[in-house]
Amino acid sequence: MPRPKSDQPRSQFANIRFTAAEHEELEAQAASNGFKSISDYIRHLHQQSMLAQEASVSRTYEPVGDLTLFHKTRYGSMYLGNSLRYTLDKAKPASVDLIMTSPPFGLVRKKTYGNEDADQYCEWFRPFAEGFKRVLKDEGSLVIDIGGAWKPGTPTRSLYHYELLVMLCREFGFHLCLEHFWWNPAKLPTPAEWVNVRRVRVKDAVNCVWWLSKTPWPKASNRRVLAKYSDSMQSLLKNGYQARLRPSGHDISDKFQKDNGGAVPPNLLAIANTDSNSSYQEYCRKNNIAIHPARFPAQLPEYFIRMLTDPGDNILDPFGGSCMTGYVAESLGRHWTCVELEEEYLQGAKGRFISNVQPINGREVSYSISVPCANAKDAPEVPLIVDGGRARPKPQVPQ
Ligand SMILES: C[S@@+](CC[C@H](N)C(=O)[O-])C[C@H]1O[C@@H](n2cnc3c(N)ncnc32)[C@H](O)[C@@H]1O
To answer: Looking at the 3D structure of the chain, how many domains does it have?
Structure first.
């Protein structure tokens, strides 16, 4: 019997050329997956990819939990509860100019293979991402400070924060404006086991800070966050510069002699997080309230708030903690909302607003970082640890 005519005949051609190796590979994959031909196999792959896209696009997320107004200040509000309730329900769509936040870091746990921790983190984050997209204005920015994590038991790192970045861009359509790295010069060398004992890794001293936006054109000005000119630039501005070609081939013309009021900072933000004596901590100690263990240094939100918002704009921190974002926003005359799950953290945060909000200080500080290898040593004086640190070195017996 002749085959019945399909109502969707395959009348279009796509001519794809493969290398011999690709062709062989595709044929083998098609056969091992039960397909008669490479084209059936490609059709199947395409359907799978469309289904996956559909699943991610059509998923809706429910706002969860209650939200109560905990405290109000001149410019801001602290809410106690789940920020999913705020971003997916209470807040007006497209009402926020800047989301400045630091979510709880990676959920890394023991496992035998794969990057399950990263998958779990992304799965947990998806509803928040949906909420962020809902509340952010087109010209607004989303800034996420996120630290890396070590996989338990090995000197290797989780990919969770990179997976998060890829997910936010690929699945939710955010644009990566510029990744920043927050270098904390006071960070201790951890984990001591890999850094100090087995000596197979160096100090991890940066957090990633993903600056994202809904469109490629969020409002911004780097003139708001200029740094002090270096000593050499200051003397160049004072004494002039002989225009010439640099070894890199760049033509350093006399336009470099113009005083623009400060240097455009790099995307490496040097901010020590050493504050142990602030009025916030004093307030917490006096009132027997737990001090938040992962507070922003004020200069981190300050940098993004200044560069990306105007006075009167709306700033949201959906993982509010001790409300440092709110504090900085208040001091700069921006409206703010912080949402936090733990009541005790908000009790402490309230202490930030009891007396007048002080302007932020500490901008005059600068840190130097040494060029590596100043004390370099080579074999045979320092042999490599050839097992990669698998075996713990035996403690040295004093001679
Ligand atoms: C890394 S801390 C943020 C600290 C904050 N940047 C500061 O300067 O104090 C993350 C905070 O998010 C809170 N959190 C976690 N899940 C939340 C949720 N669904 N809604 C609101 N807050 C949440 C945690 O209780 C924690 O205090």
So the answer is: 1
